[in-house]
Every structure is written in C-alpha cells, then in structure tokens.
Specification:
With 288 residues, the protein is an alpha+beta fold. The chain has helices at residues 4-18, 133-136, 149-159, 164-169, 179-189, 201-222, 230-236, 269-272, 281-287, and strands spanning 23-28, 49-55, 58-63, 68-72, 77-82, 97-103, 109-114, 122-126, 256-259, 264-267. Helix 3 packs across helix 6 (201-222) and helix 5 crosses helix 6.
Length: 288
C-alpha cells in the first residue's frame, strides 16, 4: 500500500509534469471506484492544473477553477505516467486500468491502475477536498511544522491504553502512516506493537523521533526515484516489515510476525519485546 512517503513522491512527480497543463478528459473505467457525482467528470475538460499535492495518503490534483480530482490508491492502486496518446481504448474490462487522465496537445497523462480482485481504489471529483470523507477525518500530518512533540504527547495521552500499532495506523489520529512504516517506526523506537499509547516523557520523545526520522528519511530517498521504482525502493529499505525469518539488522535475532485476517506485521523480539515472542493465533494453530 502506498503510504505517506510514496504518495508524497507521486504528488511531487505529477506536480512537475502537470502544473500548467490543460486537461482534455478524465475517463473512469472501473465505475465502482468513482465515489462522487457532482461535479461531473466532464467538469475537468479544458481545466488547467494548478497543483498536485497530498493529504495523508490521498492525492489531490487541483485546477485553476477550484475543481479537485482526489484519489486514494488503497492497497493495490498505482499511478502510471503515459508520455503520449494511449494505445488502448480505456474501455471497461477485467484489466487493472481504473481511470485515465488525458492532456490536450500531445495526449500525455496518467493511468490509474489497481491490481488484484479486491477493489478499494477511490476517486472523487469535488470542489473542496474536505468534501471527501476520508480527508475530513484525517488527523494531523506527522511531517508538518506544527506537529510538535507536545502535540504528539497529547495525542498519545488521548489514546490511553490503545495499542501503538493501531494508533500509528489510524488515519484519524495521525495521517499517512500505514502497516509498513508503523512496523519500521516501532522497530526504530524499540517498542512493542502492543505497548499502550499512554507513556512517559522519555518513551514519547523516543517514539516521536522515530516517527519523524523514519518518514523524513523515506521521503528524502524518494526524491530522486522514478515513480516506476518507488515500490522496489520502499521494499529494499524496510528493516523489519516483510522480512519474517530474516535476521534483524540491529541485533541479528530472527524477525517474527503476527498474522491477522488480511494483513501481517513484523517485529524483532530482542529489540522490541524483551525477547518475548508475541502470540500469533494463526501460526500457533498451524504448529499445534
């Protein structure tokens, strides 16, 4: 799933390519992905792109007239730049193409794709990004200047006994962090995914530093990476997420994981849980 650093990179790349360009049309091929009806899709025709930014994990393409194309790529969505006229018709079908934006003059633009059978991609055409329910519910951006240690401590205190893994992933609490980077943040902070959010000043300062460092480093790495290579770059630089069974890069212990219905998380027992292996009901059943 694209998280804050990857969406930040996509927004920067698209902003450089699209700012000042005139849109010819937006075609939505996977109609269930379109979550809005007003303004209509043809409202983008003839509009000039003023910026491409992000809100958490949402991409926001804004036009001079104030119409916004907002997209959430969900677990398997992606944006692929197309340098010229599309070779295919973009008609509805069983392929991964969900939507296509075409520019005037040369037909360049981008395709929005979604792999797999579970379709969660969301496309909104709105006059104000706050009209998108997911954006309206977003918590603060962890890389914003006003996301201070004091503000972070207040957030943690408000979450009480809630487990850190869930708190970091809750978009209404902190925007932009998903499954992978929450694993990385907790590993860097040397904290259990099950640790309660309410904690002392020393621990909260360590977690705050890990949060900002992990995301800032990832954003910095993506600045010179092509969009087609972002997924591989992310995977190559993860220390624990997706590395079950491999040695921890810090202590050498075997990285463990916990499996839920539709996702897993990874951690290092030595670095994060005092050597204790967290209960994994799925694996425990398989081994008994």
């Amino acid at each position: 799933m694209p998280e804050l650093p990857e969406v930040h990179a996509l927004a920067s790349d698209l902003d450089a390519r699209l700012r000042g360009r005139v849109i010819d049309r937006l075609q939505v091929v996977a109609f269930p992905a379109l979550k809005s009806y007003d303004p209509p899709l043809d409202a983008l025709a003839g509009e000039t792109v003023s910026s491409v930014t992000r809100h958490g994990k949402f991409l926001d393409l804004a036009t001079d007239s104030g119409v916004h194309l907002v997209m959430h790529l969900a677990r398997a969505g992606w944006v692929r730049w197309r340098a010229g006229e599309p070779k295919s018709s973009g008609r509805p079908g069983s392929g991964p193409l969900a939507a296509r934006l075409v520019l005037r003059d040369d037909g360049a633009g981008f395709d929005v794709t979604e792999a797999g059978s579970k379709k969660s991609l969301a496309i909104h055409l709105v006059r104000d990004p706050a009209e998108v329910p997911g954006i309206a519910r977003l918590g603060p951006d962890p890389l914003a200047d006003d996301f201070t240690l004091e503000r972070f401590r207040a957030i943690l205190a408000g979450q009480g006994r809630a487990q850190l893994k869930g708190v970091l992933r809750d978009q209404s609490v902190i925007a932009g962090v998903g499954n992978a980077y929450s694993d990385e943040i907790l590993h860097l902070a040397r904290m259990s995914p099950y640790k309660p959010a309410a904690m002392g000043d020393e621990d909260s300062a360590a977690l705050y530093a890990a949060l900002r460092t992990t995301l800032r480093d990832a954003v910095a790495r993506t600045e010179s990476v092509a969009a087609t290579e972002l997924k591989a770059e992310k995977k190559a630089n993860l220390r624990v997420h997706g590395r079950f069974g491999e040695p921890c890069p810090v202590c050498g212990d075997r990285i463990q994981q916990v499996i839920f219905a539709d996702r897993t998380f990874q951690y290092c027992p030595t670095c994060q849980t005092g050597g204790k292996k967290l209960s994994d009901r799925v694996l425990d059943r398989l081994l008994t």
